[in-house]
Amino acid sequence: MDYQTGFLNHFATEAVDGALPVGRNSPQKPAFGLYAEQFSTTAFTTPRVENRRSWLYRMRPTAAHGKMRKAEEVGTRWLSSPLDCGIADPNRMRWDPLAQPDGDVDFIDGMTTYCANGDVAACDGLGVHLYSCNASMKDRALQVSDGEMLIVPQQGTLHLTTEFGRLDVPPGHIAVIPRGVRFAVAVDGPSAGYVAENYGEPFRLPDLGPIGANGLANPRDFEAPVAWYEDRDCTFTVVQKYQGHFWTVTLDHSPFDVVAWHGNTTPCRYDLARFNTIGTVSFDHPDPSIFTVLTSPSAIHGTANCDFVIFPPRWMVAEDTFRPPWFHRNVMSEFMGLVHGEYDAKEGGGFAPGGASLHNQMNGHGPDAHSTQKAMEADLEPHKIDDTLAFMFESRWPFRLARQACELPGRQSDYDDCWTGFPKAELP
Ligand SMILES: [Fe+2]
C-alpha cells in the first residue's frame, strides 16, 4: 500500500498519468472525460489556514444518483445525539469488551453507540461507539454526513477503501475519515474497536506552545492514501448516515471511481507508536492534555469539543510524586478505552482491552485502591510503563448514555467497588 505523508498537506495524486489537471481546478474538459468535483469539509469562507477542501476527478459525478430511501433496518444500534432515550447519569461506568456478533455482521451493523453529547443538527458534540464485526462490506459503502470518524482499532486490521484511495489500519493505528467521505471496510476476521463520531470542528493537531516546533504527534507521520480507483459496473449500495438516520441509494457502479485528486482534506491514518510522549523530568504528574494527539476545538476558546488523548508506553522518572493519574473531578467528561495491555490507574483489574469506561462531568475518579497503595509505597526508581495503550475521548459536554449501553451484559455493576478499601488518613 502506498501512502503520502503529512497532516493537512496540499496533496496531489493521480492513478493514471495525465488525469490530474495542472494549473487549474476545473478545466473546461478534464482529461479522459473525467468530471471535476470539489469536496469541502470547511466553509468556502473559512480562513485559509484552516480551510479544507479537495478536488476530485472521477469517472462520474457523485450527483448522478436516484432517490435515497430511508433504511430503518441499517445500523440499528448506531445512534446519534440527542439520544431519544438518553439518560444523564452521574454514575461512573465501566464495560467489559463487546461480544463477537452472531452470523455475518459488517462495520455498519456492528456499531453500538455507548454515549453521545451535543447535537448532530447543531454540528456540536460527538457520538462514542464501539464496533464488533466479522464480515467485510460487500458492494456497500458508507457516507457519514453527521461527522468525522476517528476510528481506533483494538482487534483486527481494518482495510479501508475510500474515494481518496486505500488505507490499512491495524490496532495501534488510528484512521480519520473526514465528514462525508464514502468508504468501505473490509476485515480479515473478528474485528473490534472504538469510534469517535465528531459532529463538531474537524480534528487538528494541538498547538504546542512552549513545547516548541516539535513533539507529540508530528505532522509528517500522518499518512494519506494515493489515488486509487476501480472501474466496476455492478449493483452498489451507498449507505448515508444523515441527521441520525440511515438512508440508502443504489448505484450501477462502484463509487470508488476517483482517478486523481488534490487538496488538503483526505482520510488518513496515524501510527500511535510514533507519538512523541512528553512528561515530567522533575516532579508531579502532568495534566493528561500533554498526551493529546488530535483536538476538535469548541466555540469556547481553549475548550475542546473532543480531545483524543493516548496513554502510550513511557518512562516514569518523577521524584517525590504520586505517579499514576491522580484523583480527579473534571469539568470535562472522559470516555476511556484500552487497545492493549494494562492502564496504570487500574492495575487491580476490570479494565480489559476492548473494554471502556465513562467518567462524566464533575464526578470523582482516579486510581483504584490497589494501584494507589502500590504507588504510594513504590521505590521511585525510573521505570518504564510498557505494553500499554489506553486512550480517552474527552469532551466539554457531559455524555448522555444510550439505554442500550446501560443494558449491555458487559456493563459492570460493581465498578464503584474499585474505589473501596482506602484507609482513612490518620491526623496527629
Ligand atoms: Fe480524569
TrEMBL record:
Homogentisate 1,2-dioxygenase N-terminal domain location: 3-272
Cofactor(s), by name: Fe cation
Keyword vocabulary terms for this entry: Dioxygenase, Iron, Metal-binding, Oxidoreductase
Domain Homogentisate 1,2-dioxygenase C-terminal, chain residue ranges per copy: 274-424
SUPFAM superfamilies, per database record: RmlC-like cupins (SSF51182)
A Pfam family the protein falls into: HgmA_N
CDD domains xrefs: cupin_HGO_N
EC number: 1.13.11.5
Membership in a protein family: Belongs to the homogentisate dioxygenase family.
Name by which UniProt lists this protein: Homogentisate 1,2-dioxygenase
Organism field: Blastomonas marina
